[in-house]
């Protein structure tokens, strides 16, 4: 039998895993009462596929050639990761406002397990949403042109991106407990990260003042590397980040992940008092 650590003390690795999975299970059970969370993750990518990939496909093209439906699917899939920011932020804020965190503090459970459990539960929901988006993408004409292993590697990369974005949601929920503010900020982050990138067009078509931001946007790095793995059309634009997508991905996404995790755990220590 696993002995849980006392509140506030460092957790043994096995205890931390057990506690995190318990919190994740609680988060998944709530999905049955609030299935709108899954619908929200699917709707943003679906709207992009319908509007950009179908209705406006005649007015949009890929720099260097290639089918636009195949070009945008990596960007659409990345939107599924961004769509998880808002629900995670709202859940964390509600737990703080509703006193659940205070009840957790009275239990012999390590503090990081609460936040890790939130992200693991929401990652499972996000992966379900990504699977649905992929099926819809196939219906809209997306096809990978490489073998099975590169295709799976592309989806694994998207899962890593999704998990990093969930920590952005955790940080947002810890710093702002106002649900209206969270929804507005999360919506802005989703839109800006999506369209200030190469998700739907090459960054060389953006104004010069925004091009550098778009090139170092973690979404651009994830989308470029995923397209390469899937064998889909890729427009690099000739910049260093686009020509070295793996390095840009490690720097940009790694920075976002480390900062959000460290700041979230630090903020949680004070918010849970």
From TrEMBL:
Keyword Cell membrane set for record: yes
Source organism of the structure: Streptomyces hundungensis
One GO CC term on file: ATP-binding cassette (ABC) transporter complex
Keywords: Antibiotic resistance, Cell membrane, Membrane, Transmembrane, Transmembrane helix, Transport
Pfam name, any one: ABC2_membrane
Localization per record: Cell membrane; Membrane
GO molecular function: ABC-type transporter activity
This protein's name: Transport permease protein
Major location (coarse): membrane
Domain of life according to the entry: Bacteria
Membrane-spanning intervals of the chain: 36-56, 71-93, 114-142, 148-175, 182-200, 245-265
GO aspect biological process, one term: response to antibiotic
InterPro entries: ABC2_TM (IPR013525), ABC2_TM_bact-type (IPR047817), ABC_2_transport (IPR000412), Nod_factor_ABC_transporter (IPR051784)
Domain (ABC transmembrane type-2) ranges: 36-268
Family according to the record: Belongs to the ABC-2 integral membrane protein family.
Membrane topology listed for this record: Multi-pass membrane protein
């Amino acid at each position: 039998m696993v002995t849980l650590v006392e509140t506030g003390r460092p957790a043994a690795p096995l205890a931390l895993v057990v506690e995190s999975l318990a919190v994740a299970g609680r988060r998944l059970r709530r999905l049955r009462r609030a299935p709108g969370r899954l619908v929200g993750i699917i709707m943003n990518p679906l709207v992009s596929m319908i509007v950009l990939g179908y209705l406006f496909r005649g007015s949009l093209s890929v720099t260097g050639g290639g089918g636009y439906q195949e070009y945008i699917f990596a960007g659409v899939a990345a939107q599924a990761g961004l769509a998880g920011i808002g629900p995670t932020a709202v859940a964390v804020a509600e737990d703080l406002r509703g006193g659940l965190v205070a009840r957790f503090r009275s239990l012999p459970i390590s503090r990081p397990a609460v936040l890790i459990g939130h992200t693991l539960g929401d990652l499972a929901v996000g992966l379900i949403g990504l699977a649905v988006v992929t099926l819809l993408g196939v219906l809209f004409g997306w096809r990978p042109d490489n073998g099975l292993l590169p295709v799976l590697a592309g989806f694994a990369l998207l899962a890593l991106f999704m998990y990093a974005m969930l920590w952005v949601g955790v940080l947002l929920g810890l710093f702002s407990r106002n649900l209206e503010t969270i929804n507005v900020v999360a919506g802005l982050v989703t839109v800006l990260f999506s369209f200030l990138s190469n998700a739907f067009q090459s960054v060389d078509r953006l104004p010069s003042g925004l091009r550098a931001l778009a090139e170092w946007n973690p979404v651009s790095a994830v989308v470029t590397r995923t397209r390469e793995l899937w064998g889909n059309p890729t427009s690099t634009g000739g910049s260093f980040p686009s020509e070295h997508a793996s390095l840009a991905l490690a720097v940009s996404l790694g920075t976002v992940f480390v900062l959000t995790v460290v700041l979230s755990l630090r903020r949680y220590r004070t918010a849970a008092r």
